């Protein structure tokens, strides 16, 4: 449970580092992010074995106090984490309930907006969409996230996609496309996860293309 809390806390606050570096006017958000990150676990940069995902065009690797590597485009980010399950055979619904509980305890102004159960390339998943805020001493940043939770062979995979609330609809379709591209196979020995990048689009994405059905 401690590792799960660390994974989710790191994902919630990771935007704080990127946002403060790219927007000095919001530097007051850095203080709560920094103090929170002191108590969390550094998540390795290597992707889980036999886990593949196709990143949307333009996303590049970066790092934060919590993660050695995750992926960003402007104010949007995609973070991939794995968490070995302590109880063999744990149900996806139970694990997702724990995740929502941690978000409620960790994120300011957390509001769950949508929850759906889907199958992604043969693996069951729960997709959550919610809003929350980073609140500093004299600043506030409203954010929105799409999180996919997947269980495979007693390992949980948490894919956190988020951006500023005001730009979320620009990235929503990209986030869902990345999640839908995930493939998780039974891991053989000496196999590492892979990230692939799609070619840049030749046309501008329309508003209808960013809508998730």
Architecture overview:
This protein is an alpha+beta fold. It has one domain: Protein Transport Mog1p, Chain A (3-Layer(aba) Sandwich), CATH 3.40.1000.10. The chain is built from four helices and ten strands; from the N terminus they run H-H-E-E-E-E-H-E-E-E-E-H-E-E. It has helices spanning 2-22, 30-37, 92-106, 168-180, and strands spanning 51-55, 60-62, 70-73, 76-84, 108-120, 123-135, 140-152, 155-164, 183-184, 194-197. The protein is globular.
Describe the structure concisely.
With 213 residues, this protein is an alpha+beta fold. It has helices at residues 2-22, 30-37, 92-106, 168-180, and strands spanning 51-55, 60-62, 70-73, 76-84, 108-120, 123-135, 140-152, 155-164, 183-184, 194-197.
Sequence-ordered SSE layout with sheet pairings:
Elements: H1 2-22, H2 30-37, E1 51-55, E2 60-62, E3 70-73, E4 76-84, H3 92-106, E5 108-120, E6 123-135, E7 140-152, E8 155-164, H4 168-180, E9 183-184, E10 194-197
Helix pairs in contact: 1-2, 1-3
First-residue to last-residue Cα separation:
33 Å
CATH topology value:
Protein Transport Mog1p, Chain A
User: Domains counted in the coordinates: how many?
Assistant: 1
Low-confidence stretches: 16-44, 199-213
User: Which H/E pattern describes the elements?
Assistant: HHEEEEHEEEEHEE
Number of helices: 4
Please tell me the overall pLDDT: 75
| Structural category | alpha+beta
Oligomeric nature of the chains: single chain
Indicate the CATH architecture.
3-Layer(aba) Sandwich
The number of E-state strands comes to: 10
Coarse morphology = globular
Give the name of the CATH superfamily: Mog1/PsbP, alpha/beta/alpha sandwich
Helix fraction, binned, reads: 25-40%
Estimated share of beta-strand residues: 35-45%
Radius of gyration: 16 Å
Question: What is the CATH class designation?
Answer: Alpha Beta
């Amino acid at each position: 449970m401690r590792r799960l809390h660390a994974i989710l806390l790191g994902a919630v606050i990771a935007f704080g580092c990127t946002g403060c570096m790219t927007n000095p006017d919001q530097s007051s958000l850095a203080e709560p992010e920094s103090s929170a990150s002191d108590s969390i676990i550094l998540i390795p940069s290597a992707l889980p074995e036999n886990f593949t995902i196709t990143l949307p065009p333009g996303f590049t690797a970066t790092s934060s106090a919590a993660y050695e590597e995750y992926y960003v485009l402007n104010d949007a980010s995609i973070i991939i984490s794995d968490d070995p399950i302590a109880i063999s055979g744990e149900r996806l619904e139970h694990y997702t309930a724990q995740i929502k509980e941690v978000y409620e305890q960790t994120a300011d102004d957390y509001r769950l907006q949508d929850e759906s159960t889907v199958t992604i390339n043969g693996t069951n998943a729960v997709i959550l969409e919610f809003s929350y805020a980073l609140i500093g001493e004299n600043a506030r940043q409203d954010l929105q996230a799409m999180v996919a939770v997947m269980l495979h062979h007693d390992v949980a995979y948490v894919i956190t996609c988020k951006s500023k609330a005001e730009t979320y609809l620009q990235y929503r379709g990209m986030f869902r496309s990345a999640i839908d591209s995930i493939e998780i196979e039974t891991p053989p020995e000496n196999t590492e996860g892979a990230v692939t990048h799609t070619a840049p689009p030749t046309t501008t994405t329309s508003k209808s293309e960013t809508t998730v059905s």
